[in-house]
Amino acid sequence: MAATTTQSMGSLPSGLAICVTVPDMFYLPELVTGGLVWILVASTHVEPANPLGWVMFVSVFCFFMTLLWVVLFIAGCHKNGSAWVAADFAYHALAALFYLSAGVNLAFITFIMKSGALRIYQIDIAAVVFAFMATLLYFIHAVLSSLRWKHF
């Protein structure tokens, strides 16, 4: 088992192999949690729109970039080069940083607006939870991608 894990960490998968390799199996949970943040934030109306605009930008940007990344990997557009491995790490590290800042902004706005309608408050709490879950998933993916980069 350890030999196959190390071997899969040293190369980039293509096709449906991205569903079973160690760092790449996080794509689907990243898409789901990011999509849920996007949907939950879009379903509420909060007065300070600027911080929520950042949250919406992060969730939409990361959702579509992750989807594009998955399509590129499934199609085999990468040439198994060091640049793709580095780009994989860089994207996931940037996405983790973006989601961390978006989650903190969303948590702060939710805390400030807690005296509002209960239904909106519950939706905002769910969005905060999913934002931090997305942060964790992207962070784990970035760490595992850095290990793959090291073994490449």
UniProtKB/TrEMBL annotation:
One of its GO terms (cellular component) is membrane. It is a multi-pass membrane protein. Keywords: Membrane, Transmembrane, Transmembrane helix. It is found in: Membrane. InterPro entries: MAL, Marvel, MARVEL-CKLF_proteins. The chain crosses the membrane at residues 12-41, 53-77, 89-113, 125-144. PROSITE patterns: MARVEL. Residues 18-150 form the MARVEL domain. It holds the Pfam family MARVEL. GO terms for biological process: myelination. GO terms for molecular function: structural constituent of myelin sheath. It comes from the Eukaryota. This is Mal, T cell differentiation protein b. It comes from Hippocampus comes (Tiger tail seahorse).
